[in-house]
Design brief:
266 residues, mainly alpha, Ferritin, 10 helices, 65% helix, globular, binds fe (ii) ion
Length: 266
């Protein structure tokens, strides 16, 4: 597969941008389950080295490196959805293609800031947790819910927490990049909400009931997210009060599991 097999991160961005025609016009369903090529070490999150605080340049660069890894996977997931769901409406493809390009810009922004701080891509290991949250067996409703409403939606909550933490340190370039990314991500999540509703309607499903049902079905495979839910950003990206409550309960169940685990192991 073209963009997945390109190893160098800068080359990957270039190849992606040259392939709009492929992404928008290809009609053959290509099932992608391999982990895409990386020019950084891929390690399970638990095996990553400890992080430094944001008051150090290394701590800031490491945070941007984690963010770059998220943007890279978001970019690849965009192409993956286009490859695995050739039957979706052209309008969906065009909007998703724009989002995929926007992820490539976010990735580039992170790489530039990492270098401005004196570090480079590959200085730390990465993981492919986002990529591994989806499956070739997903329906388009599963995929939109997982990628755009759950993963990118959780990214909004996390980005806001990040901005608050960065507020107290001298890191103008880093703050600017994170702020731009988080503002643009609202549109990505809104894309997910709008198309989630459209696909529900097309299948004669009630989105209000489907959200809880589908999240219950998928929650075992979703990565744990425990950042406080940002109600304002969630509302801006189309979440209903019932959906936000569901996410609050899910977060609480993750936190409870953590505290039971800690008690058992203390
Ligand atoms: Fe992004
Ligand atoms: Fe995004």
């Amino acid at each position: 597969m073209w963009a997945f097999n390109v190893t160098n991160v800068h080359e990957k961005i270039k190849v992606l941008r040259q392939n709009a025609d492929f992404a928008l016009k290809q009609t053959i369903r290509t099932v992608v389950s391999i982990i895409p090529a990386r020019d950084a070490q891929v390690l399970e999150f638990k095996a990553h080295p400890p992080k430094k605080g944001f008051s150090t340049k290394e701590g800031q660069a490491r945070m941007l490196h984690d963010l770059a890894s998220i943007e890279l996977q978001a970019m690849e997931l965009g192409i993956r959805t286009l490859s695995e769901f050739p039957e979706v409406p052209q309008e969906f493809k065009e909007e998703l293609w724009k989002i995929t390009l926007s992820e490539s810009e976010h990735l580039e922004m992170c790489l530039t800031e990492i270098e401005a701080l004196g570090f480079k891509w590959g200085d730390w290991p990465v993981n492919c947790g986002l990529w591994q949250s989806v499956s070739p067996e997903d329906s388009i409703l599963d995929r939109v819910l997982i990628v755009h409403r759950y993963l990118e939606g959780s990214g909004l909550d996390a980005g806001d927490s990040l901005l608050k933490r960065l507020g107290g340190v001298d890191a103008v370039g880093v703050q600017k990049a994170v702020k731009i990314i988080n503002t643009e991500e609202i549109g990505h999540v809104l894309f997910g909400t709008n198309w989630y509703i459209n696909f529900c309607k097309a299948e004669k499903l009630d989105p209000t009931h489907d959200f809880a049902w589908r999240m219950d079905k998928l929650r075992a495979v979703l990565p744990r997210r425990i950042n406080p839910i940002n109600h304002d950003l969630r509302k801006q990206s189309g979440f209903t009060p019932e959906e936000i409550q569901y996410l609050e309960n899910l977060r609480m169940s993750f936190l409870e599991k953590d505290s039971v685990w800690k008690k058992k192991n203390s």
